[in-house]
Amino acid sequence: MIFQVLKKMKVIFEVNFILVMAMATTAYIHSSYLSNLNTTIPAGILFAFGSITALISTFHSPFLFQKFGVKKSIILASVLNTIGLLTMGISTNPGLSIFAFIITIGSTALIVIGIDVVINHFTVTKEAGEVRGLNLALGNLAFLIGPLIAGVLANKTNINTVYVFAAFLIVGMMIFFKYKFKKFELHPTHIKQVGLSDFFTLWKKEKIKYAYITGFMVEYFFGIWAIFTSIYMHEVIGFNWAQIGLILALMHIPYIILEPIIGDIADRYNNEKKLMKIGLCITGLSFLWIALMKHDIVIIWIIVSILTRIGASFGQVAHESFFFKQIKPSESGLVSMYRTMSPLALLIAPISGSIILLFTGYSNLFIFVSILLLASMLLANKLTHTP
Predict the structure, then answer these.
(1) Which of 70, 79, 191, 230 is the most exposed place for a label (fewest CB within 10 A)?
(2) Please, what sign has the CA dihedral across residues 288, 291, 292, 294?
(3) Four-point Cα dihedral 80, 77, 322, 145, nearest 10
């Protein structure tokens, strides 16, 4: 079954792989890049500005897709993304670099949503778990390779070089997408712009609400990790960028191995509740281990980081699979609303993290997040399928 899905979705998976590779090379160095700009604004707050742009892109994506089509919207966002990455790579002006960062984050969100719409367009409901699981696994293969490349480039040259490399990847993705989808035109009229009414509709549907909250916690963990953990490893623990790149790369192995299997299990047994509880438990406990760990032994960091991703792989597939099985094709507003989860988490994570760090250290921040993840297991009990 997995091989049939892979063959059917091959081209769009390839496009997404290149996109995620570009994202993976820069994802964990953004916070250090922003910290090096010598501004008085904390990196977490600057990251929040980028997340606001991502939220705006998410809210307005249905309008752009209907007016310009999904393909043109993706290409336009890719052009903006390339300009932003190149500017970050060569600019010496802090203000311009921050503006480029904000544009890059916002345009990335639009590209991701556009690719997601294309995947959803070619996916049948009964294959939702496998398609999502396989796509996530391939994306995380890119996240295995990306940090290794970023670590080597940053260690041998500087962080700015990584952004230039990512820009070339986006150009390659854009050309490949335009060529492979030459005759593809999709103006999805069934997707509507997110409004406050969609939020209340989602909140009234209890099972979807709990899928949103538990999924949000997984995304919130990703946000805290991406923004604060790499700084912690570099500035507090003392790892160099090559070591950090190795840790961040190898921790993605569980995604590649587990997510297609978890997606298949979710489709066969409709047991997303158990999968989500397992994910939240493993992620919470392993992140608590990181919070309490003080030594700089690379192999130990690799092991515990892999454990966080074993848990996250269960959580990611579980909330995606559950949600897309619960909604009807006509409930496009809920899909758009659900897609605000990641940018919203990436907005709240840097703000909340920066506030907590004003009063305490990184370890206590990580303990706080661990407690939230473990407490969310109670809400995961609500993820039961409608008979």
Answers:
(1) 79
(2) positive
(3) -50
**pLDDT below 50 — which residues of the chain?**
1-2, 5, 387
- Give me the pLDDT at residue 219, please: 93
Helix pair 206-224, 298-326: axis angle to 10 deg: 160
Task: Give yes or no for a contact between 39 and 68, defined as CB atoms under 8 angstroms apart.
Answer: no
CA torsion sign for 9, 15, 109, 194 is: negative
pLDDT digits (tens, 9 = 90+) for 276-323: 999 999 999 999 999 999 888 999 999 999 999 999 989 988 888 888
For domain 2-380, the CATH architecture is Up-down Bundle (1.20)
**Within 13 A of 34's CA, how many CA atoms are on the CB side?**
28
Which two tokens mark 155?
């260690």
**What is the token pair recorded at 256?**
């590649």
Tokens of 318: 């579980």
- At residue 102, what is the residue type? I
| CA distance linking residue 238 with residue 236, whole number of Å | 6
pLDDT tens per residue, range 343-382? 889 889 999 999 999 999 999 999 999 999 999 999 998 8
Tokens of 359: 């009063």
**pLDDT for the residue numbered 387:** 46
Distances in whole angstroms, Cα of residue 37 to Cα of each of 106, 118, 144, 242, 381: 20, 37, 27, 21, 45
Q: Which residues contact 129 (CB under 8 A, 6 or more apart)?
A: 263, 264, 265, 266, 267, 317, 320, 321, 325
CB-based burial label for 353 (10 Å; 0-12, 13-18, 19+): buried
For residue 36, what are the CA distances in angstroms to 18, 75, 178, 224? 28, 31, 36, 19
List all residues 6 or more positions away from 204 whose beta carbon is below 8 Å from its beta carbon: none
Question: How distant, in Å, are the alpha carbons of 40, 158, 218, 246, 377 from that of 263?
Answer: 45, 39, 17, 27, 20
DSSP output for 15-67? HHHHHHHHHHHHHTTHHHHHHTT--SS-HHHHHHHHHHHHHHHHHHHHHHHHH
Q: Is the pTM of this model over 0.90?
A: no
